[in-house]
C-alpha cells in the first residue's frame, strides 16, 4: 500500500535521526566525529584507508604496469628519434658531398650510402612499430585489469549489486543527466523486514543466500537503465532514471508481487521475506544525496507505520 509522507521537507533533526540510525548499524557511538564519518560514508567515495588490502594491492599492481608500459614507450620513442636524427645527419652530409663532386664513382658510392641509411631508418621504424604493437597489447591487458579492479571496488561481492562506492559514481552521473535534460530521477531505499529474525531462525548463511535471492528478484524487475545497489546489510537502493514517483511506486508494487510469488526455499521450506521502502523523486534544487536522505526518511516512516509498505516522500 502506498501512502504519502506526512513531512514534506527534511529538517536537521530528521537528518540527525537518519545519521544516528546509520551509526547504530555501524556499531559506532554517536559522537560528533562519528557523525561526520557517517556523513562521509554516505556522501563521499571510500577513502584509501577504508579500502581493503586486496583492493589496494590490485590498484598498485595496475599502476606499476601502467608505469612500466609508459617507461617502455618513452625509451622506444627516444631510440627512434635518435636513430632518425643520426640518419638525417648522415644523409645531409652525403648530399652535401654529392653536390660538391662530378666523379661518377664517388656519386655512386654516396648514393649507395643514402640508400643504406634509408634502409636502416626503415628497419628501425619497422622494429619500433612491432614494439609499439606489443606495448599496445600490454595496455589492453592493463585496461582489462582496470575493469576488473573497478568491478572489485564498486561491486558487492555477495549479491553482485553495486556497492556504495559504485553508487556514488552512478548517482553523480544520473543527477547531472537529469539536470542537463530536465529529466526525472527517483530513488527507492528498500529494507528487508525483520531480517534479524531470519538470521536468528535459519542462520546467517541462509540469510546471505536470501539477500542474494532478493537481489536477483530485484534485478529481474528492473530496466537495464535502472541501478541496484546494496546500500547496507539488508538494505538495497534503486536508482531509477526517467522515472517519477508514480512510475517508481508501480515498480515497487511489481517487486513486491514478484518477491512474494518467488520466495526463497531452504530444504523445501518456503521462507518469505517482505520489505519496506521509501521513495523520493529528485528535485531540481537538491543534490543526489539530499534525495537519498529523503527516501531514507520515508523508509523510516514505512518502518514506523508497520512495515511491508512503501512511503513516498513529497516532491514539494
Ligand atoms: N545474513 C546476513 N545478515 C546481515 C547482513 N548484513 C546485516 N545483516 C543482519 O540484518 C539484521 C538487521 O537487523 P535490524 O537492523 O534489527 O533490522 P530488522 O531485523 O530487519 O528489523 P526492521 O528493519 O526493523 O524490520 C541484523 O541481524 C544483521 O546482522 C549480511 O550481509 N548477511
Q: What does this protein look like?
A:
This protein has 316 residues and is of the alpha/beta class. It has 2 domains: 101 residues; 157 residues, Reverse transcriptase/Diguanylate cyclase domain (Alpha-Beta Plaits, 2-Layer Sandwich), CATH 3.30.70. Helices cover 64% and strands 12% of the residues. Strand 5 and strand 6 form a beta hairpin. Helix 7 crosses helix 8. The longest helix has 51 residues. The chain is elongated, with a radius of gyration of 31 Å. It starts with a strand and ends with a strand. 23% of the residues are buried. The N terminus is likely disordered. The chain binds guanosine-5'-triphosphate. The site of guanosine-5'-triphosphate has 15 residues, from strand 2, helix 6 and helix 7.
CATH top level of the largest domain?
Alpha Beta
Instruction: Classify the beta-strand content into a percent band.
Output: 5-15%
In CATH terms, what is the architecture of the largest domain? 2-Layer Sandwich
Q: Could you give the count of β-strands?
A: 8
| CATH-defined fold name of the largest domain | Alpha-Beta Plaits
Mean pLDDT: 85
One letter per element, helices H and strands E, the order comes to: EHHHHHEHHEEHEEEHE
Name the hetero compounds present. guanosine-5'-triphosphate
Amino acid at each position: 500500500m502506498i501512502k504519502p509522507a506526512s513531512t514534506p521537507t527534511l529538517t536537521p533533526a530528521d537528518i540527525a535521526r537518519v545519521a544516528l540510525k546509520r551509526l547504530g548499524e555501524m556499531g559506532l557511538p554517536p559522537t560528533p566525529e562519528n557523525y561526520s564519518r557517517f556523513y562521509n560514508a554516505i556522501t563521499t567515495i571510500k577513502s584509501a584507508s577504508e579500502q581493503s588490502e586486496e583492493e589496494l594491492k590490485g590498484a598498485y599492481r595496475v599502476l606499476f604496469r601502467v608505469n612500466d608500459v609508459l617507461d617502455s614507450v618513452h625509451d622506444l620513442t627516444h631510440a627512434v628519434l635518435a636513430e632518425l636524427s643520426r640518419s638525417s645527419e648522415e644523409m645531409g652530409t652525403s648530399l652535401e658531398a654529392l653536390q660538391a663532386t662530378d666523379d661518377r664513382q664517388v656519386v655512386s658510392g654516396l648514393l649507395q650510402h643514402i640508400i643504406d641509411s634509408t634502409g636502416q631508418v626503415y628497419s628501425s621504424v619497422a622494429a619500433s612499430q612491432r614494439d609499439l604493437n606489443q606495448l599496445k597489447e600490454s595496455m589492453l591487458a592493463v585496461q582489462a585489469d582496470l575493469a576488473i579492479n573497478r568491478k572489485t571496488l564498486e561491486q558487492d561481492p555477495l549479491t553482485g549489486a553495486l556497492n556504495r562506492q559504485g553508487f556514488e559514481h552512478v548517482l553523480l552521473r544520473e543527477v547531472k543527466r537529469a539536470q542537463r535534460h530536465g529529466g526525472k530521477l527517483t530513488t527507492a531505499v528498500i529494507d528487508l523486514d525483520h531480517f534479524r529474525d531470519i538470521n536468528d531462525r535459519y542462520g546467517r548463511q541462509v540469510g546471505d543466500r536470501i539477500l542474494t535471492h532478493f537481489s536477483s528478484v530485484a534485478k529481474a524487475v528492473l530496466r537495464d537503465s535502472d541501478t541496484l545497489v546494496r546500500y547496507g546489510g539488508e538494505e538495497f537502493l534503486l536508482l531509477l532514471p526517467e522515472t517519477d514517483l508514480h512510475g517508481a511506486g508501480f515498480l515497487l508494487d511489481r517487486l513486491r508481487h514478484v518477491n512474494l510469488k518467488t520466495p526463497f526455499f531452504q530444504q523445501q521450506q518456503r521462507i518469505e521475506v517482505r520489505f519496506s521502502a521509501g521513495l523520493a523523486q529528485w528535485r531540481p534544487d537538491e543534490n543526489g544525496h539530499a534525495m537519498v536522505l529523503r527516501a531514507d526518511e520515508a523508509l523510516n516512516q514505512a518502518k514506523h507505520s508497520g512495515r511491508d509498505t512503501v512511503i513516498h516522500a513529497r516532491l514539494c
